[in-house]
Amino acid sequence: MTTPLFEAKNLQKYFPVKGGILNRTQAQVKAVDDVSFAINPGETLSIVGESGCGKSTTGRAILRLDDPTDGEILFEGQNLMELSKSDLRQKRKEMQIIFQDPYASLNPRQKVKQILDEAMAIQGVVSKAKRPERIRELMEVVGLRPEQAERYPFQFSGGQRQRIGIARALSVDPKLIVCDEAVSALDVSTQAQVLNLLKKLQKDLDLTYLFISHDLGVVRHISDRVIVMYLGKIVEIADKKDLFDSPRHPYTRALLSAIPIPDPSKSRERIVLQGDVPSPMNPPAGCRFHTRCPFATDICKTEEPELRSTTFMNETHKAACHHIEKIAETEKTSIV
Amino acid sequence: MASNEQTPVLEVKGLQTSFFTPDGEVKAVDGVDFSVNSNETLGIVGESGSGKSITSLSVMRLIQHPGKIVGGTIELSGEDLLKKSKQQFAKYRGNRLSMIFQEPMTSLNPVFTVGSQIAEAVRIHKKLDKKAAWQEAVNMLKLVGIPAPEDRAKRYPHELSGGMRQRVMIAIALSCDPELLIADEPTTALDVTIQAQILELIKELQEKSGMAVLMITHDLGVIAETADKVVVMYAGEVVEQADVKTLFKQPLHPYTQGLMNAIPRHDIDLDELEMIPGTVPTPQNMPSGCRFAERCPYARDLCVEKHPELATPSNNVDEAVTTGQTRCWIYTDEWDGPNPTKGVATNQ
Ligand SMILES: Nc1ncnc2c1ncn2[C@@H]1O[C@H](COP(=O)(O)OP(=O)(O)OP(=O)(O)O)[C@@H](O)[C@H]1O
Ligand SMILES: Nc1ncnc2c1ncn2[C@@H]1O[C@H](COP(=O)(O)OP(=O)(O)OP(=O)(O)O)[C@@H](O)[C@H]1O
Ligand code: SF4
Ligand code: SF4
Ligand SMILES: [Mg+2]
Ligand SMILES: [Mg+2]
Questions:
Q1: Closest ligand 4 atom to the C-alpha of B300?
Q2: Which CATH architecture group holds B10-232?
Q3: ipTM score of the complex?
Q4: All domains in chain A, ordered by first residue
Q5: What is the residue with the minimal CA distance to atom 7 of ligand 1?
Q6: Is CB count within 10 Å lower at the N or C end of chain B?
Q7: Do A255 and B248 lie within an 8 Å CB cutoff?
């Protein structure tokens, strides 16, 4: 058993919804609700799910960019919730984040070399004299030419800007990088460039990734393990192969079947889900997926299912559904 | 399968649309040809900035200053749309041809209920009175699968989810039984489970009405699942055109091949994604030869010097796959030697 690099235990993040004359808290958005997982050193763990399910909130909460409302976050065994602001700042160099829109996160009035220099200065990881050399190195690592560090962000294409975002994250020698939709805004050809780069860097620099994405194709390509979220909860977690080849949760199955496959000769059964995702302010009781689940029964409306494994699942594979066994049974009879 | 004798619902020939900017002319669409028959879906695919939206906006004659259609013809069931006066064309738009956009919020009016917006469209095109138009609006909402349509008709756009708003847009677009529906990235802003609902809906409605559909997307998966024929655009030009099965089975153009091998897929494992090096040329530095040459692994002097035409392949291709057209020197008699792309397996 490897010791995890990172662990989230019963992580919770509620956002208050204020309103009325007194601007009192009227409700809570349960963006992340009792989420636990561990990330092993050197692996890529992904979080997938539809818009609003709590992926970004999870990513931000574990870095304490937004403080969790409850739960524990452990980095190399140390509880980050107990750290003071200044100790936390020190720890931040171990944990970096890359965002979807590299443009919004880069200061347009700074040259790339200033952006990288500042990141290193804040963390105090590289002495001033050594920074120019480090900047050259970083530019090369992410596949840009060192002299391009003299340019401003707007002088780069989207894919190149994402490389700058990666260079900035790498500048402080992190162990863990949270990639929040890091390739989602890119065209496929550019996306492939950045994905291949992330994979290479992981190998070369021994990085650990928490990779957040709504694109299951990208996730299959980059991950070792995958978490599927729905309305603030983990509904399934598994090794990549198990998740894509034998998904157990009805939501995961619907999600996988909904993605168009770029191959017109492949025909398949599509599970079209009815209705919309309910509001996280007022999530359904019991299993949060029951309002859209084709397998829902009475117990689903009242009792919340635990994440669990069963005899025919690998022990690292868990799904939160009351009827895993029954659904596997119907599958045997319906699929030839 | 559509026969060739049929008059296409839409036939675009040599379309050129440019923007006249202070930095010079931007040829956003530069000589585009395609046609769509009734009951058929033509997919237009290409990366950001390749000219997909400008092509569809040109068909709708919605190009705004400083843009201008500078060449070509656009025929709707044989009638040249570019010869119509503004007033004549206004009667066609939203009547014989309709369009839905990526972000329905920007095309719906926030201060009117969705029911009144559909009713307005119906009243104009079907010449119904107010009450009948409202009833028709409710029917349309029901047709596009919105639950509790009587109630939803009274709601404002912001009170509906993204998927429901897109359904409303479809209801408005279809309220006049168009011959042609243009869908420009209709599901790009939506979640995949909602995307599946919307694509299914468009298909169902097409089966009922026989309309022609122009499906514009950057997603090859959406193309594979919805289109009968496909046009691949690159830097303002069509670089390949084929029926959907042929295109995916044997893409000819190096760009199309690269695109297909660059997509990470959720249904199969790929060791490494193919990278198309570099980026799309900017209009200011448009190469005079093949526009893909600086990113193409097979480029030769010929490619850099001379601009290839979109043509039926006459060289380096199996007899069986000459149903499409491509814009690449490899498939012409001017190319010496074997097809360098042979053996470049696609993911299929
Ligand atoms: N600052 C905030 N205040 C109130 N609600 C918030 C805030 N941030 C996020 N939320 C809500 O929390 C829920 C989860 O949001 P989150 O951004 O984590 O989703 P996501 O899974 O990252 O979605 P997307 O795929 O759209 O990025 C959503 O319902 C969102 O509206
Ligand atoms: N108002 C404008 N002025 C100058 N150039 C323009 C203008 N509108 C569009 N263009 C140019 O026309 C080209 C084609 O744009 P278009 O919107 O058709 O691309 P697209 O294929 O739809 O891309 P996307 O996938 O990003 O929607 C682009 O290079 C763009 O820069
Ligand atoms: S617990 Fe019930 S409602 Fe939830 S996913 Fe399983 S079958 Fe569906
Ligand atoms: S014409 Fe030449 S450069 Fe262009 S795609 Fe064909 S081989 Fe490549
Ligand atoms: Mg997010
Ligand atoms: Mg567009």
A1: 2
A2: 3-Layer(aba) Sandwich (3.40)
A3: 0.82
A4: 6-223 (3.40.50.300), 249-330 (no CATH)
A5: A15
A6: N
A7: no
